[in-house]
Design goal:
Elements: E1 2-9, H1 18-28, H2 39-65, H3 72-91, E2 95-101, H4 108-117, E3 120-127, H5 134-148, E4 156-159, H6 167-180, E5 188-194, H7 198-204, H8 227-242, E6 249-254, H9 267-276, E7 281-285, H10 294-310, E8 315-318, H11 326-339
Parallel strand pairs: 1-2, 1-3, 3-4, 5-6, 5-7, 7-8
């Protein structure tokens, strides 16, 4: 019998081409957790809009960020898996470390079949989504649960719901920000998080406490799994670790899609407001991602940067993500070691 750690991620196109994007989008835009409306509407969106029109356009964007080894998300995920595996090997504890992707290879269901074949009895599921969201965490967990239900011998299963309160996660970000950010050369730092529709937050608000405002100033039992609250508290934990004063930073949300209202402030509008207030030298940090990807390198690093500079900004710095920083790999090993199930004694 064996122990294993499954590092979960959404996935990425296998190649920066219309064909690669269409294959990826076929899975992504079929997920009811991500697109919470009727199946017919999802079919129309996917087959009549996304696959014929969005895929060719976005393929060009992916090509601009492609690394020699492949997609940045996949490259960094593989480096993490190898590094964390090495750390466990060096520790003397026999643990299998694997990657699983929701919408691309290695698919979660294929990886779960392999873990069953290898007779895994204790499985830790560690998502690479720092903040809990039904569109990411719950969706990936659901795939794991469906796969486990088919096992002949069910494993001792432990899920880590989020990372935003993990000291090791916050420490890794504080190290990376300190390493890359030249504080004397900027006026303001924006912590940008991937947005979600407001209705997604309200649907998960079982206690009816959501006001999209001060209710996120602390984590309570009522908002423990509120994505917006977790984003706000991620920022607060990082700036406490860095010793920053209030006023040097702010929070915004990016990547909105479609006509529905999403979490605010929107990053593009927020950057304009900062310019109006004389903040012309900006840095952006993106702690809802653990590795750089299309949303950071292209959306923020190119599109938002160009808009900011054209509107009168003097400098726009994108702080690199955790990527393949050894401090981050050490943090993942630390978190995984703390939560790894211990068989029947757990």
């Amino acid at each position: 019998m064996a122990k294993a750690i499954l590092l979960l991620n959404l996935g990425t196109p296998a190649e920066p081409t219309p064909k690669g994007l269409r294959k990826f989008y076929k899975y992504f835009f079929s997920d009811p957790y991500v697109f919470d409306f009727n199946a017919i509407g999802r079919w129309i969106l996917r087959n009549l809009i996304i696959l014929p029109f969005r895929a060719p356009r976005v393929a060009k964007d992916y090509a601009s960020i492609w690394m020699e080894e492949g997609s940045p998300l996949k490259v960094y995920a593989d480096r993490m898996q190898h590094s964390v595996q090495e750390l466990f090997d060096q520790s003397g504890e026999e643990v299998i470390v694997v990657n699983g992707m929701a919408y691309s290879e290695p698919f979660i269901w294929d990886v779960m079949q392999e873990l069953e074949r290898r007779k895994v009895s204790d499985l830790l599921v560690l998502p690479m989504f720092p903040q809990y969201s039904t569109a990411t965490t719950a969706s990936a967990f659901n795939q794991v649960e469906i796969a486990v239900a088919k096992w002949q011998e069910k494993p001792n299963l432990v899920f880590i719901n989020d990372l935003f309160q993990e000291p090791a996660f916050i420490r890794a970000w504080s190290i990376v920000i300190t390493k890359y950010l030249q504080q004397d050369q900027i006026d303001h730092v924006v912590f940008s998080y991937h947005g979600v529709p407001e209705k997604t937050i309200k649907k998960s608000d079982k206690e009816n406490v959501c006001q999209f405002g001060d209710c996120c100033n602390s984590i309570t039992s009522a908002n423990r799994y509120c994505y917006r609250a977790q984003c706000v508290q991620t920022t607060e934990a990082i700036v406490r670790a860095l010793g920053w004063d209030e006023g040097r930073y702010s929070v915004a949300f990016q990547s909105r899609f479609g006509p529905l209202p999403w979490l605010q402030p929107y990053l593009d509008e927020h950057l304009k407001a900062l310019l109006d207030n004389g903040k012309k030298r900006i840095a952006v940090v993106s702690p809802s991602f653990i590795s750089d990807c299309l949303e950071t390198l292209f959306e923020i690093g190119k599109e938002y940067r160009e808009e900011f500079i054209e509107a009168g900004g003097e400098s726009f710095e994108l702080v690199p993500n955790l990527n393949d920083e050894q401090a981050w790999f050490n943090s993942v090993f630390e978190i995984a070691s703390a939560y790894l199930p211990q068989g029947a004694t757990n």
